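Shipment paperwork, digital attachment
Item: protein structure file
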Amino acid sequence: MDKILRVGFVGLTHDHVWSELPHWKALPNISVAGVTENNSSLVDRFHTFFPGVPVFKDPISLFNSATIDAIQVMSSNLRSVEIGADALERGIHVLLEKPMASNLEGADKLLRAKSGSRAKLMINWPSWWRPNMKAAEEILKSGELGDIFYARMRMAHRGPQELGCSPEFCEWLYSETENGGGAYMDYCCYGAASFCYLFGKPERVEGWRGRLLKKNLPVDDNGLLTLYYKDKVCVAEGSWTQGPSHQGASFYGTSGVMELDKEHLWVTGAEGVRTQREFPPHHNNGPKHFVESILCNKEIEGIFSAELGREAQRVLELGKGRINIG
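Attachment content:
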């Protein structure tokens, strides 16, 4: 893997970029060829990670003016679709942050662009790089819990503004068009993707979202998405009204129960004894996996694949279609 991958960054309004840039900086086989962002303060912050990187006024200028092998897009869920599709059609590899798009139409557009290109498309789900999530997947595969009949994933905090998200991030998170919803799209998407990955395509989907506390918001502050399978029910919960923050999941089987938060994992066996499980550290991350997949010419599979991202988007769309915000 002696090749150096020339990477561009398109948009800096998605706050996840600031936790991803250290991962990029640690990679020995990339060079940053350019960034597109019209907000000078965000560019200044970017330059603290990669000093002197050229700034382009828009994605097309970046694509036309520099030799780019791959891009990370950190824009709104809506804008990321146009940027990603354009790059894929030019043969540029694309890394998108979750979810795949703001709606199913956008996910389909990306998938079509990928199918007509030799470039790779990866959807990054940050929670799936946590060591306890990888350990939970192995426990589910092992059959230790028996047959899973119920699962729940809850992602919740007090709200983007209250959490301290940047004004630029909040601006599009609070937009029905740019985000695709509110807490429902932002946080129920994790459960949608996780359950589709772990258990496959559901037979039926129901959704709900509403403004329970923040009546001044133009989008929902809470959401639910229920996936019905032949032998199990899975519920994805998203909230922008909960303090303290919580990110976790529970899996209920005929032989035991497994619970997770952001860092820990517990299993309660059939005898009723709850034990905290230890697991090895996990040193992979989105940028590292993306770059290795390109340089080693490996398919991007599993939860990070475009196909899984599209299925999660389909499920979200089915649930969203049954929602009425008052």
